[in-house]
Amino acid sequence: xxxxxxxxxxxxxxxxxxxxxxxxxxxxxxxxxxxxxxxxxxxxxxxxxxxxxxxxxxxxxxxxxxxxxxxxxxxxxxxxxxxxxxxxxxxxxxxxxxxxxxxxxxxxxxxxxxxxxxxxxxxxxxxxxxxxxxxxxxxxxxxxxxxxxxxxxxxxxxxxxxxxxxxxxxxxxxxxxxxxxxxxxxxxxxxxxxxxxxxx
Length: 200
Fold this sequence. Notes:
- There is one protein chain.
- By secondary structure, the chain is of the alpha+beta class.
- The chain has a domain at 1-61 and 144-189.
- Helices cover 31% and strands 19% of the residues.
- The chain has a 3-stranded antiparallel beta sheet with strand order 1-2-3. A two-stranded parallel ribbon has the order 4-5.
- The longest helix is centred in the last third of the chain and has 18 residues, at 167-184.
- The mean pLDDT is 92.
């Protein structure tokens, strides 16, 4: 989740009167933006190993995946991701190869072997025989990735109505919200969508 703004409301919100909602101050001062990289544990319904920082680069994602894998280094990991280029990176291939004990020659980025192209890297990363693998959802189907559903919860329950004086305060409030959510609201999402009906 990129571009999370630390917006400080210039004036306090107006308290709600009887049968009215709280009125949020619309004028604000910007204090920068953050990116949140997080995992959704579909079996337990919890947010795992959140990483918050100013960028969402190839290195940021690889370090995040490495941090996640270290929580259980013997486990089988399946990461559901979109088609973003950082999800098919050279450093991610090298991390998976090292973590899975794969000693094959990976080739050279842009020239040959597994590292040659995004397609060849994605094929390696999605290989079902690997203990750590990635499943790439099709374009324009973000709703298939359950972390996106949780991001909307974060926006509605924390970000939309809050005021933050700095990116540090924003980061801490997000981490506090994740802890609170995991303790009090964590449960798997129940899919109710049964597919589109053919009009014929």
